[in-house]
Amino acid sequence: MTGARGHRGPGAAATAVLCAVTAAGLYGCSGSGPSETPPAPTRTPAPATPPVGISPLTGLPARSGPVLAVKIDNVPAARPHTGLAAADLVYVEQVESGQTRLMAVYSSRPPELVGPVRSARESDLALLRQFGSPVLAYSGAQSALTPLLKAAPLHLVSEGTTPGAFRRDPARSAPHNLYVRPARALATAPDATHAKDIGFRFGPAPGDGTPVNSRTVRFPAARYTFTWAPEAKAWHVAMDGRADGPLAPATVVVQHVTVRASRFHDFLGAVSPYTVTTGSGTAEVLRDGRAYPARWSRPDEDRGTTFTTPEGAPLNFAPGQVWVLLTGTG
After folding, report:
1. Across 10-37, average pLDDT
2. Distance CA 133, CA 18 (A)
3. CA of 13: how far to CAs of 6, 178, 245, 265, 297, in Å?
4. Strand partners, 215
5. How far apart are CA 285 and CA 306, in angstroms?
6. Which uninterrupted H or E stretch holds 11?
């Protein structure tokens, strides 16, 4: 083929070779074609501080953080508690002899110290699944339960395995003197799941509700009284008739569940209760000085719990700390 478009002489061929070399990034192309500069190497940016968003556990602005759950003693000798006011979420569970134990969940602002720390129960396995793979700080568990804890998607931290994450208070008697250092506990599990949606919704209250100044929730051998404090826009907490520090949740959920015997018992032979947190049932939500009837639903252990009005509309919580009391239906 002849003509200006089809003919390529030796100079053009050399230019083409040079351009091909340029594409390989070896040196610049010169001649009849345009000059090209190799792209600058891609740099991976340094990890940035997590942006401030809205915590799915409190509805308040917070940086994304891993989840730490701490089992906390709650007999009178264990009070006052340390670090409980900083929790995003607090569960109240029934244990042996009708007493209760707390599970405090931290992500937004873990304090320096939390406790007193006590042992885990079988019910914790199902309750914690909704958080993904959180860190669980606890004092131990009965030997038959330990294999189940190790098989669960949990990062286990106890005094026996991670002594540097705990300290004993010499001013208190055992077993009510063990405290966890959240920063050290979280450092053992850099891949722990960050806080995620567990079903809670935050926003304006429904248009109805019954005015309530205080509400007492009873377990077989423990009671909790929540008194509305308008100036704080929160509920002051008293346990067995005594206030325990500046505890002031914005929302209190009384969730009616099935409490049955578990497969395990304590060292005295008392059977440990098992709290069923999957399925559905009724509840009462306290917020803004009013009480709202509710229904709860949790289809399986891997999902969180949704709360709705009796008619099925989402029931918003007030932004702030949430307490969920898992009480028997009977």
Report:
1. 38
2. 55
3. 13, 80, 85, 87, 74
4. 226
5. 12
6. helix 10-23
